[in-house]
Design a protein that fits this description.
The protein is mainly α. It has one domain (about 5-70). About 65% of the residues lie in helices and about 0% in strands. α1 (about 5-20) packs across α2 and α2 (about 30-50) runs antiparallel to α3 (about 55-70). The N and C termini lie far apart (about 35 Å). The mean pLDDT is about 75.
């Protein structure tokens, strides 16, 4: 989709083929890693909604990252 970043689509394809969510992160400080994971999962959720491909696993992953960061 034109409005979505290629990185987000890569995360989506990774999930479709591997049944897992992998955040693509460069070498970042620990505080930034959590923020990037949250942001990437949120963008992935929006893409999945557009594609009508929302899974329970994605929602669970979002809550898990949120709980880990509190």
């Amino acid at each position: 989709m034109p409005d979505d970043e290629a990185e987000t689509f890569e995360l989506y394809l990774h999930h479709v083929y591997n049944n897992e969510f992998a955040c693509i992160l460069a070498s970042l400080p620990a505080a930034e890693v959590l923020r990037c994971e949250r942001y990437n999962l949120a963008k992935l959720y929006v893409l999945c909604e557009k594609l009508q491909y929302t899974t329970e696993a994605l929602v669970t992953s979002i809550y898990k990252v949120r709980a880990d960061g509190q």
